[in-house]
Amino acid sequence: MFNPDIQYRCTIIRGKAQNELDNLLPAYANIIADICPSKKEEFDKYFNDRLSNIIYKTNFNKLNENNKKTIRNHITEIAGKLFGLYYFNQDFIYESESNKKLLEDSDQPAFFKNLCLNFQFPNGTQKIQTIAERINNNIKFKPFHFILALVSLAKENDIILTKDEITYYVLNAKQVLQGLIRAEEVLAEILKDRKSNTIKKLEITSYNTQHIREQLNLLILANLILLDGNLIILNKAETNTINIFISELGEPLKFDIYKYNLNIEEEKKAMYAEWSEYFGKIAVKNYELISTSIKALQRDETKKAVTVKKGTDHTILGDEGEEFVFILEKNRVNETHPRLLNKVLLLGNQRGLGYDISSVEANENLEEPEFARFIEVKSTKRITEPDLQDTTWVDTINLTRKEWIAAKQYKEAYNIYRVYFTPSATIVRKINDPFSKNEKGTITVLSTLYRMDFNSKSIDGQYS
User: Fold this and answer.
1) What is the pLDDT of residues 389-447, one digit of tens each?
2) Looking at the domain assignment, is residue 11 inside a domain?
3) pTM
4) How many helices and strands, by DSSP H and E, does the chain display?
5) By residue range, what is the domain housing residue 266?
6) What pairs with residue 1 in β-bridges?
7) For residues 185 and 190, what is the distance between their CA atoms, to the nearest angstrom?
8) Are 209 and 260 in the same domain?
């Protein structure tokens, strides 16, 4: 018999606000890609300084102790344990698979979907005493799989569940956390208590609800649910991904933490290292199954159906961003200078130019409206809308050598249009003349690619 009143508190690594997690994710990812693989001492020093300059605009050794602690928390707790962007093996730090994929496709919701697919209780993110205590209590649970299965089941029966119900009957219910109770049993218990007007919920305090909020935040950032007040709403445009979670619910934990003897130091170390590698792996064989379409992200049923495009995630997102900016530019030019409309050209398929769109200044240069404007489009998908007034906001993009040469050549005529596809809006931010901004220190451009040219004199051997 299911008794939800047997309560048990299962915490996770404490994150930041949704927008801060969305803001810093690409910055973490690029720093890790730049330095890995590396020894732990080098990794710490490089990451400390890079992140300190992003958040506090100065090097790590110039920070006070509180700010140093904040930087280390970002790196170890969030980038490492919560996000799984890197893993360790002995004295070396390596970039995770999920980090590489994020930099390839700029699909932040897909990154969080992958994270949620890999997440479980117990896990290797916490102190050994906490892990041992959960093992002693026989905790065996995939929280995100169960929540999505339960909310989907409720939806099939025209029922909307609340955050309070998910909190009390699922994420704090010991028998559910032990994997002993099915979603059908939980729903039946909730409906029984609703019928008798029995209200069961945790007292709203940080201690009681912080771990619940952290878990639901990850599902929101994965674009799988949204909160409407206290109501939990499934994103029906993500049904295919949600079905993956549901299909995996009955399977054993992917990471068998029970096989380790945590009283033995070597096994304890092995568990932590192997968890860190597991957690950053790609959870599905076909990554397209968890990729985020613009339609699913923006959840607007009134919009015209989006034609499914062929290609890799990265090229599809790039094409969608270029088309969006192309229409934006045509509308901008046409509004004040329709005779110049034929000068707005989409050139993304012409490789080697260093820009995607050729346009004109039009209304933004009244003296010389025909002056050329060269636009390189960089697109990303995320859940939160980036706020220019938010001091934690930071972003990172990668430029090719051709793009940087074009920025140097065209200077004030060269622009990067950063496109953010979010559920609430598609936002475009313009960075004019990035080459000069880099020389002035307004932005930071780092050279991260090495090309090696060699000839026959360089060869030391040949194998067949």
Assistant:
1) 877 677 888 899 999 999 999 999 999 999 999 999 999 999 999 999 999 988 888 77
2) no
3) 0.91
4) 17, 10
5) 18-290
6) none
7) 9
8) yes
